[in-house]
Design goal:
417 residues, alpha/beta, single chain, 3-stranded antiparallel sheet
């Protein structure tokens, strides 16, 4: 005897199929909301911004930082929580990409156990750069299956890139960010005053991610970097905004035009970079769509960076990737020679490298094959179209990579090839 198949709808997202039931279908959603706030003087004892997430409750905080940040700000961090009467513990991790590992994540989770952190009322606080925030975010996503955390980036790459999205991760088995989760911080607090203690190389490192946004979607941002990039680098983006706070849900250029105001170059550079990044991330936060223009500069750079460690910083590897793909785009007629030269000149002004000996056809081919596996069987490789736009291609060959690498090596050496 056959049973008649039927579907019973229990609620909007739960279905029981068959009679007797053969299977259930469950559909649900997880709304995500997080805040990124520009702040000043976060460690001023009179500034309570860091503690605004749970006023009057959860007066304990677990803080994670790295050795460099602790040497610069550790005393002020501890004094801040002592001033506010907050019981706290500071865990100090080793700094740098070579320490971005599962071991570091487990060290955080074990310390959380020892501290006895409250799962909901005591957000973990991460003071540091992109590496530190990725480690803490990964640990928070795993600990009791999700524990809220707050990011306070102390580097430029953390402020404009690692601190504004939803991804966490650590390096594993020789691969960059091979293990990770999507788990945005509840809040990210951006205080540019932390950048004053960076050396210029680490400012350049972050400017590479800003240049990425300029090349693939914001010609105005590129013009700003071309005109003011050297000054922004040397002043470490410490110039103050001329206009004060502005609503975050309106594009920067529209806000300024509507109010008849002008931002100083450093502030506009940072705002446009963050706005551009968020415009790309927000509709595709979980990367259901694998064609992402923000992957520009991130096709070959993960392999180059991991093989070059510790010689190259992340942004430096991204810059090399962008220089290579700019030359590829020129060879395809997508970028003019004039535009190519402008791009390479801006890289030089920002203190970024355009070449590395690892740019061999064999290594680049290895990187491309790994990227294809990462992007679901297709290259989905963003190439610039002029300055301020991009296109995706799926037909790059190792011969094309070799020709572009050879041409780029000649350009960097001052010899046309």
């Amino acid at each position: 005897m056959q049973h008649e198949t039927q579907t019973t709808r229990n609620n909007d997202g739960l279905f029981a199929v068959g009679s007797p039931v053969t299977h259930w279908s469950v559909k649900t959603s997880n709304p995500v909301q997080y805040e990124i706030r520009a702040c000043e003087n976060l460690l001023d004892p009179e500034n309570s911004t860091i503690l605004e997430d749970a006023p009057g409750t959860g007066r304990r905080r677990f803080v994670v930082t790295d050795r460099v940040v602790d040497s610069l700000y550790g005393e002020r961090i501890r004094a801040y929580f002592e001033h506010h009467g907050v019981e706290h513990q500071v865990l100090v991790l080793d700094d740098g990409e070579t320490h971005k590992s599962v071991g570091a994540v487990l060290k955080v989770t074990e310390a959380l156990d020892a501290f006895g952190v409250d799962r909901r009322r005591e957000p973990v606080i991460a003071f540091g750069g992109g590496v530190l925030m990725d480690i803490v975010g990964f640990a928070a996503s795993l600990y009791r299956r999700s524990t809220p955390f707050i990011r306070i980036p102390t580097t430029l790459i953390g402020l404009v890139d690692a601190g504004v999205g939803a991804k966490t991760g650590v390096n594993h088995n020789g691969h960059k960010n091979r293990l990770g989760t999507y788990f945005p911080a509840d809040r990210t607090l951006l205080d540019r005053s932390f950048l004053a203690t960076l050396d210029e190389r680490h400012i350049s490192n972050g400017l590479a991610e800003i240049l990425k946004i300029a090349l693939i979607k914001d010609a105005r941002l590129f013009d700003l970097l071309e005109q003011h990039g050297a000054d922004v680098l040397h002043t470490k983006l410490q110039s103050a905004a001329a206009s004060g706070p502005t609503p975050a849900d309106v594009p920067v250029d529209q806000r300024l035009a509507a109010r008849g105001l002008h931002l100083d170059p450093a502030t506009e550079v940072v705002e446009r970079a963050i706005q551009g990044m968020l415009e790309e991330l927000q509709p595709n936060l979980w990367e259901k769509v694998l064609e992402r223009v923000v992957d520009y500069g991130h096709t070959f750079s993960p392999t180059i960076e991991m093989h070059a460690l510790p010689a190259l910083l992340h942004g430096e590897a991204v810059a090399i990737d962008m220089a290579l793909t700019t030359v590829m785009a020129e060879h395809r007629g997508l970028v003019s020679t004039y535009q190519r030269d402008r791009i390479l000149d801006v890289m030089a002004r920002l203190g970024l490298p355009a070449w590395h000996p690892l740019c061999t056809p064999e290594r680049l081919g290895e990187a491309l094959r790994d990227t294809v596996r990462h992007r679901d069987g297709k290259q989905r490789l963003p190439l610039p179209v002029g300055i301020g736009s991009a296109v995706f291609v799926n037909d790059v060959t190792e011969a094309e990579l070799g020709a572009a690498a050879d041409a780029l090596a000649g350009l960097v050496a001052g010899v046309s090839r």
